[in-house]
Structures are given as C-alpha cells and as structure tokens.
Amino acid sequence: MNVPLDFTAIDFETANSSSASACSVGLIKVRDGRIVDRAGWLIQPPIGHDEFNEWNTRIHGITASDVIGAAGWAEQFPDLMAFAQDDHFVAHNAGFDMGVIRAACEATGLETPDFSYLCSLQVARKTYHLESYRLPVAAMAAGFEDFHHHDALADAEACAAIVVHAAKRHEASTLAELAAATSTRVSRIRPVREAVGPAA
User: Fold this and answer.
1) What is the pTM assigned to this prediction?
2) Which fold has domain 7-193?
C-alpha cells in the first residue's frame, strides 16, 4: 500500500555540543510515500562553534580537516531550503535537528524560517513496541536495516522509512493525520527571539 505522504527528512551531525556546530546534513525528499531525491554535504561550522570534539568525531567520524573548503552555514542554507521547498520536515528526535537550524541561523545572522516539522521518534513510540526507540532500532521495526548510523544522509533515509511505514500502519495519508493517529503533533520552528520554552 502506498501512502500519499510528501515531506523532507533531515538529519544533522554536529562538531561539538553547540547546536550551532552543524558539520554535515542529509536530506531525503519523499513524494507519495517514495524517495524521489536525496542530498547531503559537509558544512564548515560557524566561527566560535567550529571546534571538533573528540566524542562527536568518534560518533560520526567527521574531523576538522574533512570540512576544510566546505561551504559554511550561511552559504549553504539557501541550498538546504531550496531542496526542502515548502515541505514539512521530519527528523528523529526532531528537537535536536530543529535546534541546529535555529542556533546555526542565529550564529550566522540569518533569519530562521518559519516551517513545520514532525518527530519520527515520537511517532515510533506510539507505533511500535520496542525496548529502545533509537533510530537503528525504530528503523529496523520499519523494515529499514543495515544502514550507516550517524551518516547524515543514511539517518535521514531511515527517518523517512519510519514515517512512511508508520503512516501505512495507521492508514494516514498526511503528516497531520499521522500526528493525530499517534497523539503527537506537527510543530513549528521559529526564530530564537520568538521561541518560547524548550524545543518540542
């Protein structure tokens, strides 16, 4: 069964504990429940947020030398938004990824766009009965296995697989219907100065 879902799945890796320190991004475009495009690239984190923490590098394998010559956030953010167009974003533990967008825009003097997103982690918790809802475990429940976890593009594809599979299970044809079926919500990201309370 196909589901007529349209969205862009997104995943970031960061250089350190700063939300503004995005060092790579993966993007997966879904139309009618199928992947139609994908993109991913390295990012030079903004000055002041560009130190690579050994712990982070151990997780994703990206080092400071890897991003030499890569475009900075301010340079590549228009490409990110052009890829997403007017889509809702979906991300696993979306508060983290939306926080990266908000903080990196703030750090580089860009206006944070106002757009909607759904968290696949929250959806997975209301769809599957698992001991853990970490991305690899939830993705396996959705039938998406053996991917390179902490590769931003692979993680975005795993996230997309969870949302599509969950929508089929709940017979949801839109993200709003999926959110309603799983007692979650489609949230909105706003600029730091307008944000109230912690990220959803």
Assistant:
1) 0.92
2) Nucleotidyltransferase; domain 5 (3.30.420)
